[in-house]
Amino acid sequence: MSARPREPVAPYFIGWAVLLLLLGLSVLSAYEPIGPYLHPIANFGIALTQAAIMYILFMRLRGRPTLKWIFAGAGFLWLIFLFGLGAVDYLTRKGFPLR
Length: 99
Fold this sequence. Notes:
By secondary structure, this protein is mainly alpha-helical. The chain has one domain (10-91). It is 69% helix and 0% strand. Helix 1 (10-31) runs antiparallel to helix 2.
């Protein structure tokens, strides 16, 4: 029996550090008055970047396409769908601060 080659752990630590940095940026943006239009765009952008890092690095989607890419794409489409529902809910509430 041959042992599998060890996978390098440095990319996982770097990905974890970037996720923590994005978490800090998300918390910072929650308390900074960056404007009513820019705030949701910035937070959704941060969340999409975090999701992309999780998909690519921790779900091991690097390399050639396989069946797991189809399921990851379906999950990403559901994520976009849920973000869209959240945006519709936010934009259609009474007392929206931009109206």
